[in-house]
Amino acid sequence: MAEGTRDRILDALEKLLLVNGVAQVTLEAVAAQAGVSKGGLLYHFPSKEALLAAMVRRLGERSDQQLADAVAGGTSASEFYLQIPEVTEHEELSLFRSIIAALRTVDGQHDEIQKAVTDVMRSWDQGLQAEISDPVQAEIIRLVGDGLYLAAMLGLPQPDPELHRQVVERLLP
Asked: Do 76 and 66 sit in the same domain of this protein?
């Protein structure tokens, strides 16, 4: 039951971030949206920082599962990382925009959120480095993939599909 409550609280946080943005998200608002008392929320997440960090970790877990599913289907980690994100999944991109807004509030005093982001990014780095023996090549692929995702999140023009294909072919051994 506790895990269901945790997920319900994190779902409520995500919904509020999408609708209101980080500035309007309070522990009280999240508790109300999740249908729990503020005390119940604080039992699972003792602070707004802990709540945001848990959301980042959960998104990392979801991304890891998407990667595992892709690899099980025959896609390499590198190919997965270099895909152009589906801009049609508006809610997912909106959520990531909200997360970026939330993370921008980190001013060096929110170690738990920074650690969560670092842990998620490190796990993705490790996956690429495990697949690619050349650490420079793995880093180039990570940087290109990050750029593709950022461009999709910001609504910037996507690369020409043929040019994108050529870039992927050049980067992957």
From this structure: yes
Provide the residue count of the chain.
Answer: 173
CB-neighbour burial class of residue 52 (10 A; exposed 0-12, middle 13-18, buried 19+): buried
Find the domain containing 17 and state its range.
1-46
Q: How far does CA 118 lie from the centroid of its chain?
A: 11
Residue 159 to residue 140: CA distance in whole angstroms: 17
CA gap 80, 78 in Å, rounded: 5
CB 57 within 8 A of CB 6: no
| Mean pLDDT over the full length of the chain | 84
pLDDT tens by residue, 34-51: 999 999 999 999 998 899
